[in-house]
Amino acid sequence: MAGVGWALLLAWLGQRSRPISAATSVLFLVSLLAWGRSTRPFVLSITRDPFAETIITTAEQVAPPPEQQPTTLASLWGRDFWSLAYAQEYQNRLPGLDLVDHNANFRAIVERGHRLLVLSRTFYVLPVSWWEERLGRLHLTSAAPGVIQLRLSPLTSANGIPGDITFDLGNGLAIRSARVTWNPGRDQLYVTIYWETVHPTPEDYSVAVHLVSHDPPRDGADVLAQADSIHPVEGWYPTSRWTAGEVVRDNYTLPVPPDSNPIAVRVAMYQIAADGSFSNTSWLSLPVP
């Protein structure tokens, strides 16, 4: 808008006095160069910041969104939002996403039928309770590693969720579906789990995701890597909040040690007793592809 104002002013002055118009043009260019010099450190702090690139790469996992699913990605106003906005505006990245900061009207966004996604790191500053004050009771599910979807209603089997396993954990919960895939560099495995609430539980369970070289592991040496979480959905969605029939998508990343021979990913839930002992549910073994 400032640029439009300058253009109109220059045009008006040009009609009345060429010397004044020329002098104003020079003043404008000098002001623009001064502004560019003053903001250059800030711009470079975003464009050359490795952490900003990490935020952008995380968001790229959900861009472009699936067809017929308009999607809004919310992030904290400041470096998070500026990094994403810069990538979309000047680097042609993050296609199809509507980017907003945490001051947006989220109720209006959801009522327009948009999927509402949030970078999971946002919850360290604005916890789930902050979002529920604005949207009401929320159901969380993973959209991708590091990205969480906020829903006003739970996912259920009616939403077209795959159901190729239905593994009973023995605690009122089940694994409806699960898959293991390699990353392009073949040094990490992505694990996607669809939990399902058969019977709601008042108990909170942690998640164990182990990469093993022998199934079942004979000792600790057979566990090559693990991605345990105090609660599902990156620690933000306790099982005691899940409703009957709810399906929860969950993502985990396992580093694969060099020169190792992983054969399976084992998945379970567990609780830790007051004496420090572990109580595990049944384990599901998924072969490494």
How would you describe what is shown here?
The chain is of the alpha+beta class and 289 residues long. The chain has three domains: 2-47; 49-153; 157-289, Immunoglobulins (Immunoglobulin-like), CATH 2.60.40.10. The protein is 28% helix and 29% strand. The chain has six helices and 14 strands. The protein has helices spanning 2-16, 18-47, 50-60, 79-90, 106-111, 128-135, and strands at 71-75, 97-101, 115-119, 139-144, 147-151, 167-168, 173-182, 188-197, 206-212, 223-226, 247-255, 264-272, 278-280, 284-287. The strands form three sheets. A five-stranded mixed beta sheet has the order 2-1-3-5-4. Strands 9, 10, 12, 13 and 14 form a five-stranded antiparallel beta sheet that branches. It has a four-stranded antiparallel beta sheet with strand order 6-7-8-11, with no helix packed on it. Strand 1 (71-75), helix 4 and strand 2 (97-101) form a beta-alpha-beta unit. The model is unreliable at 1-10 (pLDDT under 50).
